[in-house]
Design goal:
Distance between the termini: 31 Å
Strand content: over 45%
Number of strands: 4
Order of helices and strands: EEEE
Strand order of the largest sheet: 1-2-3-4
Helix content: under 10%
Length: 79
């Protein structure tokens, strides 16, 4: 149904990036911890990825990250 606005509380589209991203980090000694990022503004897109601004919620640092859709990956081991 094109042209109709999304209903409040509706799930986002499959290609939409969540606003909160968690990164699981494993150190060499086996210790694990999680970094949390908040998605910021859209910076641009290329041939296979979109670039967004991300804010680290722990130290407030701003980073840029490329977001690649899993469906665009060709090798099964990369998925």
């Amino acid at each position: 149904m094109q042209g109709k606005p999304a209903l409040p509380g509706a799930k986002p589209a499959a290609t939409e990036i969540p606003h909160m991203i968690e990164e699981k980090v494993v150190k060499f000694n086996g210790e694990t911890f999680t970094r949390k990022y908040l998605k910021g503004k859209f910076l641009g897109k290329g041939g296979f990825a979109k670039c967004y601004e991300f804010n680290n919620l722990e130290n407030k640092r701003v980073s840029a990250a490329k977001v690649i859709q899993k469906s665009s990956l060709t090798k099964s081991r990369a998925k």
